[in-house]
């Protein structure tokens, strides 16, 4: 073989070998291994200095726990607290990988169900670890806050916040734990088709804290199952959440006039929770519980 | 089996599925409860209410929509003399989807003067797109089936792309769910107030074509031979076109674009009754109605309570039967 061709082929194979070899950066003394909410190992070479979240609720958590200078971006849906507006927007669905790379985060936080695992794998290939959290109860949110505190070296701040929120929840729970008759609450997220908050949502726990219960007792695979009119008629909820009476009259009951038979409609127990409160498992969860309290015990 | 016997069997199957369907739902109801709901209706009994006001209109809508799509599929296949034709060939489904999506994505108020807008806009979308397709398929004062077919495919693709673009740009997961649910078809919106529209359109069309069945059969021989045999080809084609757009438009607007029924049921009809049966059209409507009723029942039994989208069921259960039919040696599209 011609010497030049020989050298070229060696260089080519070297390049291929380099591209295929795993990243063998030597761990520094600071490297830490965390186990995220999905049981995945997340290796961080050092304490993260540049972070962002792919879920609005987690952005709120980061703002509540971290030094805001450490937060490098936000998703288009992030609208709280006001400080988020000073951060650059990163598309999270579909993920704008180039924009993420440009912001050079050391770690991306996200929530189970928001970011697919293949997206996380792709980001990790690009050298950006992804940390998932998942919540089944209000307490899980507080643990999530403490988790972020540990990862970001802000334990004191995070633990203080979590403890304060726990105290508030406990006080509310004590007010209603003797409720003899539990109000059955149906919360709709969309009218056509009818999608509702199922058992596997934080809302179920929020209602329990308030001495009420989710009218949907059956456990579905999806956290927000689709229901038929007949199913809703059978549930016959005492309280309906999902929009103001005027809005639901126009967009829900005019579409399903048969559902005017439910108790919530008869007793005018229809309320509109604030969207970005009820939907987000974040540090404002107590605010959301207080808002629900106002609806359940007017 | 004689023709009359086929009709009796189809009718009995429809009745049996209706009775069975009335017993399936969130409220437990056996045959006695169903009978009681009709014979001794108590408005305060929610089970009675669900049977009479939710289940029955839903089942009847499935019956009417299935019959409409199968009937229109038969007409379209006869008009373009091609077994691949279906009622959506004129762009009805894509036009209706565009109309519904325009409302779902907030370009129009969801409810205007107490009327839920998606079906209204779906109907308008279906008519507008059909009109464009017909204009493109019309040359030298007559409809050219091949041109109509191509125009239908092209315009449908364009409209589907617009729907895709709007869906991609959607800012809400809920809106996406509405569009996805709508595009796969559902009878969940059925009510006594909605039912008269598709039913009236179908009944008028069935009555009209009771007199045109002979011309349709001759049309299957090809336009030139039909002309030579005295069929007024141009007029018959216009009658088919108007009927298909109106009947399919109402079916799609009320239930979403449900696929395969309009394609396969006409073949099933010809497979059972022969290519040029005298009452093929009516039988086709019966079989389409029964098939849709059965699919709706299966969808609710397989995935309670919401039921699987009906379009998925029609494809799953319809296509294997269709393949079997095509593989039968003695089946021919036209004589």
Task: Give a description of the structure.
With 298 residues, chain A is of the alpha/beta class. Chain A has 2 domains: 18-134, Nitrogenase molybdenum iron protein domain (Rossmann fold, 3-Layer(aba) Sandwich); 178-296, Rossmann fold, CATH 3.40.50.1980. Chain A contains 12 helices and 11 strands. In chain A, the strands form 3 sheets. In chain A, strands 6, 7, 8, 9, 10 and 11 form a 6-stranded mixed β-sheet that branches. In chain A, strands 3-4-5 form a 3-stranded parallel β-sheet. In chain A, strands 1-2 form a two-stranded antiparallel ribbon. In chain A, a hairpin with a 3-residue loop joins strand 6 (184-190) and strand 7 (194-196). Chain A is globular, with a radius of gyration of 24 Å. The termini of chain A are far apart. The model of chain A is unreliable at 17-27 (pLDDT under 50). Chain B is mainly α and 335 residues long. In chain B, 70% of the residues lie in helices and 2% in strands. In chain B, helix 1 (3-21) packs parallel to helix 13 (280-302). The two termini of chain B are 20 Å apart. Chain A binds chain B through residues 189-190, 192-193, 195, 225-231, 233-234, 236, 250-251, 254-255, 257-258, 261, and chain B through 25-27, 46, 49-50, 53-55, 104, 110-111, 114, 116, 118, 174, 177-178, 181-182, 186, 188-189, 191, 305-307.
The computed structural class of chain B is mainly alpha
Residues in helices of chain A, as a percent range: 40-55%
Distance between the termini of chain B: 20 Å
SS field, number of helical segments of chain A: 12
Low-pLDDT residue intervals, each spanning 5 or more residues of chain B: none
CATH class of the largest domain in chain A: Alpha Beta
CATH architecture identity of the largest domain in chain A:
3-Layer(aba) Sandwich
Q: Give the H and E element order of chain A.
A: HEEEHHEHEHHEEHEEHEHHEHH
Cα-atom radius of gyration of chain A: 24 Å
How many helices of chain B does DSSP assign? Answer: 14
Quaternary status of these chains?
heterodimer
How many structurally independent domains of chain A? Answer: 2
Number of strands of chain B: 4
Shape of chain B: globular
Biggest beta sheet attributes of chain B: 2 strands, antiparallel
